[in-house]
Amino acid sequence: GGAMVIIIGDNFFDGLQVVFGTMLVWSELITPHAIRV
Predict the structure, then answer these.
(1) DSSP readout, 3-31?
(2) Where is this chain primarily localised (predicted)?
(3) Least CB-packed of 1, 8, 28, 32 within 10 Å?
(4) Are 7 and 15 within 8 A, CB to CB?
(5) CA-CA distance, 19 to 26, in Å (whole number)?
(6) Residue 35: strand, helix, or coil
(7) Measured over all CA atoms, what is the biggest interatomic distance in the chain, rounded to whole angstroms?
(8) pTM of the entire structure?
(9) Are the CB atoms for 16 and 7 separated by under 8 Å?
């Protein structure tokens, strides 16, 4: 599974920030639970 992100022109870097930002948030949310388990 995975997310498809379509980024056009000037929105390229903003799109990357959104994608990586979301990944970082999920990592922060998931990691503590994974460690506790």
Answers:
(1) ------GGGHHHHHHHHHHHHHHHHHHHH
(2) nucleus
(3) 1
(4) yes
(5) 11
(6) helix
(7) 43
(8) 0.35
(9) yes
Alpha carbon distance 37, 22 (integer Å) = 23
CB contact at 8 A, 25 and 9: no
**What tokens were used for 4?**
């498809």
Q: Residue written as tokens 């999920």?
A: 26
Q: Would you give per-residue pLDDT tens digits along the chain (37 residues)?
A: 566 666 566 666 776 777 777 888 887 877 777 777 6
Matching residue, tokens 């870097």: 13
Q: Residue 35: what residue type? A: I
